[in-house]
Amino acid sequence: MKSGPPDFERSRRDELLGQAEKLCRTSHSGQAGDQWSDHVNPEEKEYALERASEELERLFLRRRLFTDNVFADRAWLIMVDLFASELQQIVVELDSAAERWNVSDDTATRQLATLIASGLIERLPSAPEGHHPALKLTERGHSAVAHILFRAV
């Protein structure tokens, strides 16, 4: 999956994601996000996790059944996975993201850069010693996933 030495790949990935973060700050400065996750009660949280888990199950099943050129929902998969992970208090680290989503490092980097530039996800600025930077949905990303998951209800 990787095309160069790990340090080169990591620095290339960090450069691309840094550019995406800069673009996000420029494009979305001054926009207030919904504070959905700050106001969710335990019943809503459980329901949200149930809906996100069902969606992930469908996405992973589709991923196993269809080839890469047919499966075009990577961004949605990433967002729903981050949504469910946060509800379960699971930290998704940047270096394990590609393996977690069963995509190449380059594909994960491109998808993450697009989602970061769109203001839907972010890298946490500091990671505990021995850990890689973590990924999380922004409030805007949370609102988007919640809206889509709950609109069918």
Characterise the protein shown here.
The chain has 153 residues and is mainly alpha-helical. The protein has a single domain, classed as Winged helix-like DNA-binding domain superfamily/Winged helix DNA-binding domain (Arc Repressor Mutant, subunit A), CATH 1.10.10.10. Helices cover 59% and strands 6% of the residues. Strands 1-3-2 form a three-stranded antiparallel β-sheet. The model is unreliable at 30-35 (pLDDT under 50).
Q: Which features would summarize this protein structure in a list?
A:
mainly alpha, about 60% helix, Arc Repressor Mutant, subunit A, about 5% strand, 6 helices, about 150 residues
Précis, in short:
The chain is mostly helical. It contains six helices and three strands, in the order H-H-H-E-H-H-E-E-H.
Number of structural units classed as domains:
1
Q: Helical residue percent?
A: 55-70%
Strand content: 5-15%
Helix vs. strand class = mainly alpha
Question: In CATH, what is the class?
Answer: Mainly Alpha
Name the CATH superfamily assignment.
Answer: Winged helix-like DNA-binding domain superfamily/Winged helix DNA-binding domain
Largest sheet: 3 strands, antiparallel
Integer-rounded radius of gyration:
16 Å
Q: Give the name of the CATH architecture.
A: Orthogonal Bundle
CATH topology: Arc Repressor Mutant, subunit A
